[in-house]
Amino acid sequence: MATAIAQSGAMQARSSLSSAGRSGTEPSGPSAWAWALGLGGLLPFVAGAGAVALGWGGLEPERAGQVLAAYAATIAAFLGGVHWGPAMRAGGRPVAPLLWGVVPQLLAWAALTLPTGPGLSLLSGLLVACYVADRRLYPPAGLRAWLPLRGVLTAGAAASCTVAAWVTSSA
User: Fold this and answer.
1) Measured between alpha carbons, how far is 77 from 8 in angstroms, rounded to an integer?
2) Distance between CA atoms of 110 and 9, rounded to whole angstroms?
3) 95: which residues sit within 8 A by CB, 6+ positions away?
4) How far apart are CA 109 and CA 126, in angstroms?
5) CA 153 remoteness from chain centre
6) pTM for this predicted structure
7) Across the chain, what does the average pLDDT equal?
8) What does the DSSP 8-state code read for residue 99?
9) How confident is the model over 5-46, as pLDDT tens digits?
10) pLDDT class for 91, splitting at 50, 70, 90?
11) How many CA atoms lie within 13 A of 104 on its CB side?
């Protein structure tokens, strides 16, 4: 579903951005601040996985996994919502980024209703799905230069959720 929405959105975005008079040039990529803040945003993922797997912070693995899942769900919601900015600049067209923009929030919310291990697994997959959608939706919105940062952040976040899911499911 995400791929179909993203493909449709990419085609519509190209059309909307072209008709909006956008030039063929893209803005520069993320600044040093964006990289620093993005990498800083990985700290709760790494700390959460460490708390689950190694007992960091004195939390029981199950509770640490719940805290990590809450953070991952928040990030997934952000990753969906970020698509509304370019869509709003384009007058709500194309519709696909708006539709995709609410999918991560809904799936993240559903993940929080699951037992911790399966919920973290769903969140890990959702973070990867957000990146896959971004690879389709960012270029026509002029945001291709942000994909390397998104890739690094997705790898770290998804790996942390996967490790924590494995540990909590094995316990």
Assistant:
1) 21
2) 24
3) 9, 12, 87
4) 11
5) 9
6) 0.83
7) 86
8) H
9) 444 444 444 443 433 334 445 568 999 999 999 999 999 999
10) confident
11) 30
Q: Decide if pLDDT at 150 tops 90.
A: yes
How far are the Cα atoms of 18, 61, 75, 117, 118 from residue 130, in angstroms, in the given order?
A: 24, 27, 10, 20, 18
pLDDT at 110 over 90: yes
How far is it, in rounded angstroms, from Cα 73 to Cα 78? 9
Cis peptide before 94 (omega within 30 of 0): yes
Length of the chain: 171
For 35, the token pair is 């990289």
Quote the tokens at residue 128. 């990867």
Contact 124, 70 (CB under 8 A): no
Tokens of 149: 């940062």
